[in-house]
Design goal:
- The protein has 314 residues and is of the alpha+beta class.
- The chain is 37% helix and 26% strand.
- Strands 1, 2, 3, 4, 5, 6 and 11 form a seven-stranded mixed β-sheet that branches. It has a four-stranded antiparallel β-sheet with strand order 8-9-7-10.
- α1 packs parallel to α2.
- The chain is globular.
- The model has no long low-confidence stretch (mean pLDDT 95).
Length: 314
Amino acid sequence: MPLPSSVTVHAPATIANVGCGFDVLGLCLTAPYDTVRLTRREQPGLVIHHLDDYDLPTDPNRNVAGAALLALLRAVPEPLGFEVEITKGIRPGSGIGSSAASAAGAVVAANALLGNRFSNKELIDMAMYGEAVASGVRHADNIAPAICGGFTLVRAITPTLDVLALPAPPLWVAVVHPQFEVKTKEARAVLPTSVPLALAVRQWANVGGLVAGFLTHDNELIARALEDYIVEPARASLIPGLGDAKRLALAAGALGGGISGSGPAIFMLNKDEATAHAAAEALGSVYRKMGIDFHLHVGPIASQGARVVASASE
C-alpha cells in the first residue's frame, strides 16, 4: 500500500508538572488541539505556513514545529521536503502545551508520511528541539504526553532519554485559561536556584505518592500528593486569582490541582464529569469577578496523543 503524500494531525493540549512533578510529569487532554498538515514536496527542506492570527515565525529554525522537523530530517538518510500548515487551536503562552502540541504534531505527521519508521521515544527526542526554541530548554513533560497520550513520567533526558507512558486513572480535568500570557522563559526565571533539603524531601514524597495514586486509582492519595512546595509558590505572583480559584474548585469537590505548566492556565483533577464541570464553574467565577476574559476546558484524561485524522495520496 503506497504511503500518503499528505496527512493532517490533531495535536492535543497537555498539563505539565501536574502539581509536584516539575519537568517530569505530564497529562494529555482531549481539547483544545493544534491542527498540523504536512505535505511532501519535491524540493528538500521545509516551507511553513501559519493559518492563524498569532504571527508566529515561519523560519524553520525559529518555529517550534520547524525545529522539531529539522531534527527528524537529520535522522533520515534520504533528502526530503515538507510543506507544513499549522492552525493553532492552543494559544501560545497559555500553559497547556502550545509549543509542544505543534512540535509533537509535526513529527507525528512526518512519521506517518515515512511509514512510521520512528518510535515514540525517538519522536519525543526530536520534538524537544521545538521546546528549546520556545523556552530555551529541551524538556519533555509536555512533549511526552502530547505524543504518548495519558500520563507520562520523564525519568531522564540525559545522557539517554527515559520516558515512561503510564496508565492514567479515569479522572476528569477542569482547566481555566485566563486570557493573559505568561512566557515560559519568564516563569523559569523566577524559580529558586536552591531548595532546602527538608522541602525537597517533601516534594519527592509527593511525586512518588502521586504516581502511586494514579497507578492504584487512589483518589485520596492523589489529593494529598498534588501539593507543590517549590515551583508553584515561586510562580504564584505571576497568576492573579490562583489562590481563590484553587480554593473554590476544592470546595466544589475537586481532588486538587495547580498551575498548568508555567501558567497562566490552572488545572484541577476530579473524580467524575459532574465534579469537573462544577470545578470549572468555580475556576471561571474568580476571573469573571476580576473582569478577566477566560476559556474553560473540561474533559477526561486523553488516552491518545497526537493522531492522524486525515490522509491523502497523489
